[in-house]
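Intended use. Records like the one below are meant for learning the mapping from a protein sequence to its folded structure. Do not use them to infer anything beyond what is encoded.
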Amino acid sequence: MRISTKGRYALRMLVDLAEHQNDGYVALKDIAKRQNISKKYLEQIVPVLNKSHILRTNRGFQGGYRLAVAPDKCTVGEVIRLTEGTLSPLSCIDDDNEVVCERREECSTLFVWQGLKKVVTDYLDGITLQDIVDKERESYANDYVI
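Structure written out for the chain above:
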């Protein structure tokens, strides 16, 4: 499985919003600047996140974006599923796959791919935006010079 730029940038955007959640609505240009991501690219990601319950938008003066959920309620797995569609390494084990593999019943490696999916899903669903923010703050706290 390979996570695209879209998935990685969406996660970075949401972590940025989690870090600045007390600032009210945050302008996309500010996120783009802090994260060194093209504003145009973020504009392509916003509609995907807007359709979910994760992002809240406010237009006009003082407009921008903010998290619609607490950072400890949004997992990395949720963000990746929104942007990438699935965490499955193979289409034959996708949860919403309508096409059933004709070899499924006799597939000797099916358990391998199901196990991989479970490990990846459990891992990514076990990390929240708040966990990332806390880890980042911890690394900054340990980076002092006398």
